[in-house]
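Project standup — Tuesday

K.O.: blocked on the structure for the chain from last sprint. Re-posting the sequence here as requested.
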Amino acid sequence: MEDFTLLLYNNKEFAAKFIKILANQSEESEKQLLELAYSSVRKRVANALLKFSESKNTRTMSILRDDIANLAGTAKETTIRTLSDFKSEGLIAIDDNKIELLNIEKLRNMPQ
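H.V.: unblocked you, prediction finished:
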């Protein structure tokens, strides 16, 4: 800890980068909290699918319903109903444990 403090105080470039990292994390946390507070369940589930898809760089993913619920900040049962709605609307396809995003644009532009 002492070494870190010395580095922080004595290296302006390191200190600036560290502060920038903290600011970015704070901004991302604020966005997530605002989304949980003000977005609809449909929007949160859509965003969870999109984020997971982007992190894996694929449109087809294998993810547990519990994990989607945790990412979306909602109950598993609510997530399952929402996924069923998305499937009937042609936004996603579900085959066994795999979910394929069929209409990324509509998911991305899901109303709040």
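K.O.: great, moving the ticket to review. The beta strands are 60-62, 92-95, 98-101. The domain at 40-108 is CATH 1.10.10.10 (Arc Repressor Mutant, subunit A).
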